[in-house]
Design brief:
The chain has one domain: Rossmann fold. By secondary structure, it is of the alpha/beta class. The chain is globular and about 35 Å long. The protein is built from five helices and five strands. The protein starts with a strand and ends with a helix.
Length: 127
């Protein structure tokens, strides 16, 4: 399925962000911004509507929990999908309980487009 959506990619590694874009672009058209800090996230959220937020789990000064707090602060129901190479089961469960909609292991990126499609559809149903 070829769909078009808007994504905020939060990652402190340009290479990792490009790998995410490569995987997405296999089956989707995506308008995106790559950011790595709280101020840029707030600015991006203020500028336009986004369909999904894709966030690396391990960054030195930013985290999915901060992203969740900002989304709540802006009263936005945007799916947050965490992407990680090192997340353990307990940390993943805690993220889901906190409000993250899903997580993807970097070793299984083929799941990403299906998860994005499902989460965008679910967010549309909630609206």
């Amino acid at each position: 399925m070829n769909t078009t959506f808007r994504a905020i990619i939060i990652d402190d590694s340009k290479v990792d962000a490009e790998l995410i874009l490569y995987e997405i672009s296999k089956t989707n058209n995506v308008e995106y911004v790559i950011i790595d800090n709280e101020n840029d996230l707030k600015q991006s959220l203020s500028e336009k509507y986004w369909d999904v937020v894709l966030c690396d789990f391990t960054m030195p000064n930013f985290s999915p929990y901060i992203v969740l707090n900002i989304l709540r602060e802006y009263d936005l129901d945007i799916p947050l999908i965490v992407i990680s190479g090192t997340i353990g089961e307990e940390k993943a469960i805690n993220l889901l309980k906190a409000g993250c909609t899903d997580f993807i292991m970097k070793s299984n990126m083929t799941r990403l487009t299906g998860v994005i499609d499902r989460e965008i559809k679910d967010a549309g149903i909630r609206k």
